[in-house]
Fold each of these.
Amino acid sequence: MEILKVSANSQPKSVAGALAAVLRDNRHAEIQAVGAGAVNQAVKAIAITRGLVAPNGIDLIAVPAFSEVSIDGVVRTAIKVYIEPR
């Protein structure tokens, strides 16, 4: 499964386009964000994506989870969101 990594500087519309493309190919996707700003951008992107795929009759669900990732040798807690059609 491809993991889309979102930062606080990510553009939600761009992430939404990438997320919609992954969902078309794989029927499920995963977004990873570290930090409040990144999580905010990820949630915005998920909301935009729901609007993009809704005309195709797809209703998305998002399941958040915690994950630990290593960034520059430091272990950080990330939020991972699994996204799939209902």
Note: Residues 3-85 form a domain with the Translation Initiation Factor IF3 fold (CATH 3.30.110.20).
Amino acid sequence: MKSAFSSLLYSIIIVASASIVSSCTNKPAYHREEGMIWNTVYHITYESDRPLVDSILHTLESVGKSLSVFDKNSLTSKVNQSDSIKVDGMFADVYNSSLIINDASDGMFDPTLSPLITAWGFGPGHEISADTTAIDSILQFVGINKTRLKDDLLVKDDRRIQFNFSAIAKGYGCDQVAKMLKRNGVDNYLVEIGGELAIGGKSPRSDKWKISIDRPIQTDSTEIHDASAVIAVTNCGVATSGNYRNFHKKGDKTFGHTISPLTGYPVETDVISATVIAPDCTLADGAATACMASGSRLAKEMLSRLGFEGMLILSDSTIWTSAGFPQIE
């Protein structure tokens, strides 16, 4: 889990004009807003006849009040303390998107890993306490298939089931801001939260938005960052996940942040980083995490099943891209 939706597991750099100016005409200007949310940074560029910073902040705060597990008063925190409880539209949206990725990944993406995340030291407290006995016990109340939505009521088979949407909530936050912008007549925008991206329309250069994806190469002793791969995209969501910046060490062992819902243990796969392009950023975010947990063979199958495009950076330094992935510049 990313601390408070936060720790940047990769680096995506927006390759776009940082200077937002208007000409002498009445054409709307490109605005750029940035700040901190959920212990990570956001950058939002959009073309509008007026600044929309208040609406952006309100949207992000609303997402946090629904989905943040680090806010004890959030809806998700209340769900985690209850048997069955009514949920809002945001919770339902993310829950249903999680079901899609869970099914396509054969269960390798699951937002009910919260007790395991805490046990492995990636949740609040950051203390590793997992052992074989504890993991076997925790697995008994892990699994989104042990829950269901009945209208607006979230029903759990076991009260101890807890949700942690951090592997998908930043993407959802991007989508919610993008929807708000569209409601306000904005067609051209790039919303980035902690590296996840919701993209629409044209950039300030009047063409597709160009983003640069970091290409880390992992060795036994260090992490090397190769030249970035630049791609041009629009009208989609883009998300990247990786283990190379979020891990814990205990003795001579290193534990990555991606935990298998099947075994309860951190996953060691041949995928160092996964970038996914999907119709929205929520699905891209969840699918990128699923790629990390699944390994390259299953990740490729899942992306094909979903019809998403992807780029996988593998432990042998090779890079795989799906057939429809944008040309790397």
Note: Helices lie at 53-67, 75-80, 89-104, 114-119, 132-138, 166-183, 281-294, 296-306.
Amino acid sequence: MDNNRFSRRYFFYGSLLAGAVPAGGFGSTPSLKAMGFKSVLDKLNIAGIGVGSRGGADLVPMSVSENIVTLCDVNYTYAAKTFDRYPKATKYKDFRKMFDAEAKNIDGVVIGTPDHSHTPVALAALQLGKHVYCEKPLTRTVWEARLLRDAAHKYKVATQMGNQGFSHEGTRTCAEILWSGEIGQVKEVHAWTGGIYGGRPKFDGPPPTHPIPEGLDWDLWLTTAENRSYNEDMFKRWRAWIDFSGGGSLGDWIVHCLGPAHLALQLHLAPPTSVECVTVTGVNQWLWPESSHIRYEFPERGGMPPVTINVYQNMRGDAKYPDGMMEGERLFPPSNNLAERGRNAPPEPGSKGRPYTVQTTETKGSAKPATEQDAKRHPGNGSLFVGSNGYMATTSRGEGVWLLPSARWAEYKLPPQILPRSVNHQQDWVRSVKGGVVGCSNFDIAVPYIEWLVLGAVSLRVPNKKLMWDAKKMEFTNSPQANAFLRPNIRKGWTLKL
């Protein structure tokens, strides 16, 4: 293989990391120690906020090496499992009271609250000079994303967005395959996911009001969001609600599925020129749609050609499957952990799992499946790269990668490993605080990604219109209506500023 095909212009991490870290690590100089960076020999004191679900899971791999000293959740019943796991940790409902009482004892903060609370909680932590690990999607709006990036710069702390796929072996292998030139120039990507996680509530008229459960501080759960009467689906299935999530499935699974594309196609180098909600069903003033097709257009960047990114939520879409796929062959690979299997030990082409494509010799290479049900069924969570010289697919967060048809993958030898690897995403952040290597999804990396992704959420609210984006001015040039959704509503009593 011609190693010259690895152009320096494709090195995602190099320009971001160069000169950013002292030779001995963040804990190696007195000035950086004064700013709160730790020696590798010291244990971090970590606070968890929003620990009933994802936030509690994030703490587990950190607790192997660090101290979990204080926990915060607006619902003690919901967070009981995490509270029981760390019985010595102090407990709070209000993160502001926690910071008032515990700030001197905390080095870093892990945030696993619903999306609408990410910015107020993260900003408060950053302003105290605390290192921050915040779950995906980092924010719901472009304005919030830039605010948190600016705060991280101002307070000089280590940050990480909790999109675990950026630490997966498959994500980085995907980039290395693409950069090697194996599938040629990529001008088209298709990404799929299913319905909104947890389901989409059904009701006629305004959302019904329910009694607030004992133990839940509903007003505090709302944080900056508009004051609304309690509805049990708002709390239990908040991802479906426009007020509380970053685009429904966009901020849940598509943020994972498009991670490999963002890295491999170097989408941080140039923002999209446009975004459009091409088709949509189930439009509702309270809830994100039932299904949609969103299209982003990116210009040439770093020597790569313009590329169109298609996102399908809960729908099959119109993507043409690769030529040469066999009957029953699945579109997305299994979670082939290349680090464990060995880099040149690809999975068998007939891997177990639902056959996402159902094709015969007559329909080979077409998008026409065998049945009407198959024609409507989305293929799962993942992305398909369409290159001038072949196809490549990734699964979910990037756990799996292969060439298509999979017969092409069976004898394929992976290119040289040129990107650094992570132990896991949480420890990648711990290392950035203690050892000096900047987190692979720190806010300088995460914000450009989230910024273009949440433009799709705006398009869902202004469907069937191609919205032209000017990133420098942070505005759509052809839609005042869309511009109104670039900043969040912030209710009285809350402020968000540096």
Note: The domain at 9-166+424-450 is CATH 3.40.50.720 (Rossmann fold).
